[in-house]
Each structure stands twice: as C-alpha cells, then as structure tokens.
Amino acid sequence: MKGPLFYAKILLFGEYGIIKDSKGLAIPFNAYRGALKTSSNLVDNAKKSNENLQRFYDYLANLETDLVTFNLKKLQKDIVNGMYFDSSIPQGYGVGSSGALVASIYDEYAADKITVLENLTREKLLKLKEVFSLMESFFHGKSSGLDPLNSYLSLPILINSKIDIEPAGIPSQKEGKGAVFLLDSEQIGETEPMVNIFMNKMKSEGFRKMISEEFATTTDICIDNFLQGDVKSLFGNVKNLSKIVLKNFKPMIPVAFHKVWEKGIKTNDYYLKLCGSGGGGYILGFTEDYQKAQQSLKDYKLELVYRF
Prior knowledge:
Helix content is 44%, strand content 19%. By secondary structure, it is an alpha+beta fold. The chain folds into 2 domains: 6-167, Ribosomal Protein S5, domain 2; 179-307, 2-Layer Sandwich (Alpha-Beta Plaits). It starts with 5 loop residues before the first strand and ends with a strand.
C-alpha cells in the first residue's frame, strides 16, 4: 500500500495566541511531506514509526468519543503487515510532523470521514478540527487540531477564534526582494514542555494582560496586513511582534538565538518570531530584503517559504 501525500504546515502567525482564542494563520509547506507505506522488512526509522503507530492504535482504540469511529481491524492488520509513516518532515521542528501523520490515519481509517471534496461548511471544519485535536493529543498532551487540519485540507487556514475558522485566500507570491523564511536552530524542540511554561505564565495577571493587549492585538494586525497584501505595514508590525516575543517568551527561544534575534530588530535586516511552540526546531523570519538577511545570517541554514 502507498497512501496519499500529506504536507508540512507553517503557522505564520498565532503561536500560543490561538490557545487563548486570538487569530492565527496557517499555510501548507510543500517542501516536506509524508505518506503511509508498507514494508515487509522494517529497519531504522521505518521500524520506529511502525512501533509508534502501534502505540497510536492503542490510543485510538481506547478513545471514548462519539465524534469519530475508525476501522480499527484494518488499521491493526496493516500495522502488523509492516505499515509505517514515510516522512521527510523534521520532528520537533514546529512544522507539523505529527499533524501530517494524524491526517493520513484519518484519511485512510476514519469511518464516515469528511472529505476535502465536499462543501466545507464552518460546522464541518470545526468538527474536523475537534476530531484532529483528540487524535493529535496522543503526541502533544494538548493539541488545537490545527496542524492535522491544515495538512488534511492542504489549504491556508485563518483562525478567527476557537469556534470560527475558514479557508483563507493568501496573496500570490511575487518575485520581490522580501521573504518569509525558516531559520534552522539545529536543536529539537518539544511541544509539551513549552506549552506547560506558557500555561504557568498565564497564571500571572501581568502576562495575561500582555497577551490580550499586546501580543494578540499585534498578531491580529499582522494577519490582516498579510492577507491584504499590505507589505509596508506588515514589516513594521512584525518588528513590533518580534520585540514582544523576545521580551515575554524568552524561555521558548533557544539561548543561542537571543542575540541573533536582537540583531535583527536593531539592524532591520530581518525580524524573527516563533515557529510553533519554540524551544528549538525552526524559527520563522521575515525580511524586506532576503539577500541582506542571508548575508546577515550567513552562519545559519535558511529555507525560503514565501516571497513578497
């Protein structure tokens, strides 16, 4: 067997904010992808993946929910026959490796699944998000369900709030100087510890105030600028967001990148923000001049995501 491809995702804006009901914007990232495959000779990563699928099967078999049912018999049989998730999506990098896996399992084994081809009403999108949240909680302890949703639909998704999500039209890429890029921290980040740090910080009234008055507001403006193609305003607001994140989310930024982050804000060569939960993996960069950013960050691995 060989299943369909599911792509990585990038949450351009909204990390942590979406946990607390502010806006978010996620886009598929086709440079990385994964698919279910079967092999009679499992070694290394394929073997590890197969064992992981068995644990995931146990989790799904014990889910108590009316939202979704799975063809568990077929799933178990396929795992025994050597099924694994063949993926180029780096794990612990904030680009949705578990999301693509969840999407592929839902696509192959969910009974009465909601398909990408039908009219995706808000109710259907929310139901899918809820199902995916339940499924992906196996990997992260707590999941918004957004990564698998993005991977499953392969569409940009605008999150207005927990109960209001919609497919989004993003401006088509131009051959300009500006860019969104990924900066490789070359360390793996784990979602759960980072989310726990955030939840503990949320117990402080000052932090909650900063989230609602500064972080969420600036994130919302950045999303509006991006969707409207207002690049000039976008960079001013992303710079502001970068400052807010550096000041308030230091534990989520690998220590080796605190100075790199500051340098971008000081020189205006680039502005950095978290990609996913942080703690390692990729850091997301925005620049008005990609060549200048490449020069400024010449000691690091960069990957292009989107051109302005």
